[in-house]
Design goal:
This protein is of the alpha/beta class. The protein has seven helices and six strands; from the N terminus they run E-H-E-H-E-H-E-H-H-E-E-H-H. A six-stranded parallel beta sheet has the order 3-2-1-4-5-6. Keywords: ATP-binding, NAD, Nucleotide-binding, Nucleotidyltransferase, Pyridine nucleotide biosynthesis, Transferase.
Length: 196
């Protein structure tokens, strides 16, 4: 049975910490592959609009993972309309790949929010969770922690918001994002980058 980790997110833009988390999850949880799943409209971020459109975000993910043989992109959430609840998406993914075993990769801070996830009782029947520790945050044990396999990763407090802010003030994003993503952002003039 193939073991797949799902790395969901807006990836606005994808950055090197996303890749580090995915690789550490793959190695430590002994996953065969990690599938990056760009979100269409995450319910917990409905009030926030993605800065880059779905086409740009998916292309940046493709560029970031293109040289990693165990990384894939799935656009199942981008192909859906409206809010993307994880349970609905994973029901669709499990139906498409019934012989695969799926784990959803989340930050340690999201473990405490699992009780608030839409249809969590159904979701834990479909997937396990791989939780990674975020800087300055230690998750509290809850009734959901038996569904979570925790991994240790080097602490790296990097966010897509920080990357966008660096671009907007004209600072370098080299080593924050893969070089192909940096070039794509510049060429496309994303986040206020000066096209060169």
């Amino acid at each position: 049975m193939k073991r797949i980790g799902i790395m969901g997110g807006t990836f606005d833009p994808i950055h090197n910490a996303h890749l580090l988390i995915a690789e550490q999850a793959r190695e430590q949880a002994k996953l065969d592959e990690v599938w990056f799943m760009p979100a269409h409209v995450p319910p917990h971020k409905q009030q926030k609009k993605s800065v880059a459109n779905a086409i740009h975000r998916a292309e940046m993910v493709r560029l970031a993972i293109r040289n990693h043989p165990q990384f894939r992109i799935t656009t199942v959430e981008l192909d859906r309309e409206g809010p993307s609840y994880t349970v609905d998406t994973m029901q669709q993914v499990v139906t498409l790949h019934p012989t695969y075993e799926f784990s959803f990769i989340i930050g340690g801070d999201m473990v405490e929010m699992l009780p608030q996830w839409h249809a969590i009782e159904e979701l834990v029947k479909l997937v396990r969770f791989i939780g990674f520790h975020r800087p300055h945050f230690a998750p509290q044990p809850s009734r959901w922690t038996p569904y979570v396999d925790f991994i240790e990763i080097p602490l790296w407090d990097l966010s897509s918001t920080y990357v966008r802010e660096q671009i907007q003030i004209g600072k370098s994003i080299r080593y924050l994002v893969p070089s192909a993503v940096e070039c794509y952002i510049k060429e496309s003039g994303l986040y206020g980058a000066d096209p060169t």
